[in-house]
Design brief:
The protein has 22 helices and 21 strands. By secondary structure, it is an alpha/beta fold. The chain has a domain of about 70 residues. Strands 7-8-9-4-10-11 form a 6-stranded mixed β-sheet, with helices on both faces. Strands 17-18-19-14-20-21 form a 6-stranded mixed β-sheet, with helices on both faces. Strand 1 and strand 2 form a beta hairpin. Helix 4 packs across helix 5, helix 7 runs parallel beside helix 8 and helix 15 crosses helix 16. The protein is globular and about 70 Å long.
Length: about 575
């Protein structure tokens, strides 16, 4: 437990951050990111010793800007005011040399995208050894020996062999473990973890959360944990700071915030995330609706080179079969590498199948060629996970929507196509002003709405949704899911809904396929499968879902002991 009589390890006092955008009519334009000009208040909170404080809020709320202000990892056009006291020393007044000495030594960071943070041209061992040599003065051999110990500490198998590996040779979860090992190398007193599990599937996320909790307890380290997922926050945090538009809306102990949130925005965030114990939505689905899509014995293999002259076949999808009726949703779940996305891409012939059949409206998709294939392709479309990468940055939104209609000769002329495109924008919740803008002018949730509108330009009957909401904030995710349900009810669309988030799948799917190593290990209707799974693998997936926190009906001292234990025991079914 923390000693409230001691000064906090970190104190943020009236922090305000704004970014210089340039000049307009001789005046400098600023964009306020943290704090308020109108209310005259900044962000203020403490991080005590041996305590995890979580910063939560939607994209643009100021979470990452607040955290990066601590170590001044902000762009050159940022201006910070207020005070940031680390161990009594104001970091806003520290020199660049003093901050460089502090970063990685006393304060370390773990970021959301490990592949974007690790240097692709250096080995894992060299990157972990660098802070050890820089800050602790270790020689090369001693630094590599310590790097091996750190890899073992974060649970990476075969740590000695991994020292010579490059980042691209590791999985996402392994890369994140390497980032944590680098951050812990010099035994920092404060770890800033900025969305460290957002891009990971539920089982790897569970491992990383348990790892962070264990290391924090063993090293008596403080942590600033940034996330938009309150389910994750509820399992790891002692205190929660809720941010919106750069201002604190609520700052309370985790148990109090989860059991009795005071602010309407906090309540909305808590209500936005689908929960495994929510009543299933009552949606009229005709059990006798015509079958639109049927897969029979679907297989996909990739050649893997072994040596100079030998290759082997990697079986990414093996003997997958299902039927999908009009107006129904098939959920496909599994860990990264289970074959979910490969199966979805093979359905659309974006990968050519190795074996099997896919029947669309009774016709074999794999046998169609030329104009027949083109005509049928417009009836089955895909929405990808990353809306930032799936839209052409050089096309306006209007061009993005008009191009597929022009290719498939939809509409009488350009005027008619433009009218259809504007109607689609309105249908997905965007106004006509979006037509002439570019993708960078929109948020992630708005871009995903545009991607859905683009898929709808061809009036498809089946949409393959490949992790289409996993990168979105919980409130934006809820909006997009509601949009997808409304479109399905209105247009009779059938969905293949691929996701690693079982709570989201439960809220969307009529039937669920569970995939592991390219094979379907379990298939049942959503309620049956998630309430009483037959397979151990499915039960492990369900057990890994973050479930937040609810104050137990125990004595206060027992609750405190529970919150300071090494293990993470989910006690909130959400």
């Amino acid at each position: 437990m923390t000693n409230s009589t001691l000064p906090p390890l970190l104190r943020i006092d009236d922090l305000r951050v704004r970014f210089r955008l340039g000049r307009e009519q001789g005046q400098v334009r600023w964009d306020r990111a943290v704090g308020s000009d109108t209310a005259g208040t900044g962000v203020s909170f403490d991080i005590p010793e041996n305590t995890t404080v979580a910063l939560v809020g939607e994209s643009g709320s100021g979470k990452s800007v607040t955290a990066m202000s601590i170590v001044n990892l902000l762009p050159d056009n940022a201006e910070r005011t207020g005070r940031i006291l680390f161990d009594g020393r104001d970091l806003l007044q520290a020199s660049p040399a003093a901050l460089r000495a502090l970063r990685g030594r006393a304060i370390a960071c773990v970021f959301q995208d490990p592949m974007g943070s690790l240097n692709p041209v250096f080995t894992v061992g060299a990157q972990i050894a660098e802070p050890l040599r820089l800050h602790l003065g270790l020689g090369r051999r001693a630094a590599l020996a310590r790097a091996e110990e750190l890899l073992a500490e974060v649970g990476l198998p075969e740590p000695k062999r991994r020292l010579s590996a490059y980042p691209h040779e590791l999985s996402g979860g392994q890369q994140q473990r390497v980032m944590i090992a680098m951050a812990l190398a010099c035994e920092p007193r404060l770890l800033i973890a900025d969305e460290p599990t957002t891009a990971l599937d539920v089982t790897v996320q569970r491992q990383i959360l348990e790892l962070l909790a264990r290391i924090k307890a063993e090293r008596h380290m403080s942590m600033l944990f940034i996330s938009h997922d309150l389910g994750v926050v509820g399992e790891i945090a002692d205190q929660v700071v809720v941010l919106r538009d750069g201002q604190i809306r609520e700052h309370r102990p985790v148990a109090d915030l989860f059991t009795a949130p005071r602010d309407a925005y906090t309540r909305a965030l808590l209500a936005s995330r689908p929960r495994l114990d929510d009543p299933l939505p009552v949606r009229p689905c005709d059990p006798d609706a015509p079958v639109l899509l049927e897969a029979r014995g679907l297989c996909k293999s990739f050649p893997i080179r072994e040596g100079l002259f030998r290759t082997r076949a990697f079986k990414a999808v093996q003997d997958v079969g299902f039927t999908l009726r009009r107006g129904h949703t098939l959920g496909v779940v599994g860990e990264s590498g289970s074959g979910k996305t490969t199966m979805g891409l093979t359905l659309l012939r974006l990968h050519e199948a190795t074996a099997g059949q896919v029947l669309f409206d009774g016709r074999d998709l794999f046998a169609l060629q030329g104009p027949e294939r083109q005509a049928l392709r417009r009836r089955i479309q895909i929405v990808f996970q990353n809306p930032y990468a799936s839209l052409n940055p050089r096309f306006t939104i209007g061009q993005t929507l008009l191009e597929p209609m022009q290719i498939h000769a939809i509409g009488r002329d350009d005027t008619d196509r433009r009218a259809q495109a504007l109607a689609l924008l309105e249908r997905v919740g965007l106004d006509a002003t979006a037509f002439g803008k570019y993708p960078h002018e929109f948020s992630g949730g708005q871009r995903q709405r545009i991607a859905i509108a683009r898929a709808l330009t061809l009036s498809p009957e089946v949409l393959v949704l490949d992790e289409a909401v996993s990168a979105l904030d919980v409130s934006v995710q809820a909006q997009v899911l509601a949009l997808l349900r409304a479109l399905q009810d209105e247009l009779g669309l059938a969905y293949v809904f691929i996701s690693h988030d079982l709570a989201v799948v439960r809220s969307m799917a009529d039937e669920v396929l569970v995939m592991k190593d390219g094979c379907v290990v379990e298939r049942a209707d959503a309620q049956t499968l998630l309430a009483a799974p037959r397979e151990d693998y499915t039960r492990r997936l369900l057990a890994a879902v973050p479930r937040g926190y609810v104050q137990a009906a125990a004595a206060p001292e027992e609750q405190a002991a529970s919150r300071n234990s090494d293990s993470i025991t989910p006690v909130f079914t959400g």
